[in-house]
Amino acid sequence: MIGDPTPFAERVLDLVERIPHGMVMSYGDIAEYLGEGGPRQVGRVMAIWGGGVPWWRVVRADGRPVQGHESPCLAHWREERTPMRGERADMRHARWQGDHQ
């Protein structure tokens, strides 16, 4: 049984829900924005509890989609008109800096 999200997980999930359509944040961006954890901790939160939030807006630092979920991720990006370079998010144009941009 997975259990309820931890307070850290709740903060991660809340931030992911706020990423606007067509934008992305890397795992490291999320940890940096929150000022806690790191990319691996954010990835673990997303792997366990991320199915109910727009998970496709969370990417690797180089803009690659979540491993194993590339096809649905790319479909969401096309639908949301996320800036892309090939099959990666164009981090220069698609990266969201959070509410305090």
What does this structure look like?
The chain is mostly helical. It has one domain (7-94): Arc Repressor Mutant, subunit A (Orthogonal Bundle). Helices cover 46% and strands 8% of the residues. It is built from 5 helices and 4 strands. The chain has helices spanning 7-18, 27-34, 39-49, 70-80, 91-94, and strands at residues 25-26, 58-59, 84-85, 88-89. The strands form 2 sheets. It has a two-stranded parallel ribbon. It has a two-stranded antiparallel sheet with strand order 3-4. Strand 3 and strand 4 form a beta hairpin. Helix 1 (7-18) crosses helix 3 and helix 2 packs across helix 3 (39-49). The radius of gyration is 13 Å and the shape is globular. The chain starts with 6 loop residues before the first helix and ends in a 7-residue tail after the last helix. The model has no long low-confidence stretch (mean pLDDT 95). InterPro entries: ATL_DNA_repair, MethylDNA_cys_MeTrfase_DNA-bd, MethylDNA_cys_MeTrfase_DNAb, WH-like_DNA-bd_sf. This is Methylated-DNA-[protein]-cysteine S-methyltransferase DNA binding domain-containing protein. Keywords: DNA damage. GO terms for molecular function: catalytic activity. It comes from Sphaerisporangium melleum.
Structure characteristics:
MethylDNA_cys_MeTrfase_DNAb; Methylated-DNA-[protein]-cysteine S-methyltransferase DNA binding domain-containing protein; 101 residues; Arc Repressor Mutant, subunit A; two-stranded antiparallel ribbon; single chain; WH-like_DNA-bd_sf; globular; mainly alpha
Assign the CATH topology: Arc Repressor Mutant, subunit A
SSE string, helices as H and strands as E: HEHHEHEEH
Question: CATH top level?
Answer: Mainly Alpha
Q: Helical content, roughly? A: 40-55%
Lateral arrangement of strands in the main beta sheet = 1-2
Beta-strand percent range: 5-15%
GO biological process, one term: DNA repair
Organism: Sphaerisporangium melleum
Protein name: Methylated-DNA-[protein]-cysteine S-methyltransferase DNA binding domain-containing protein
Domain Methylated-DNA-[protein]-cysteine S-methyltransferase DNA binding: 7-69
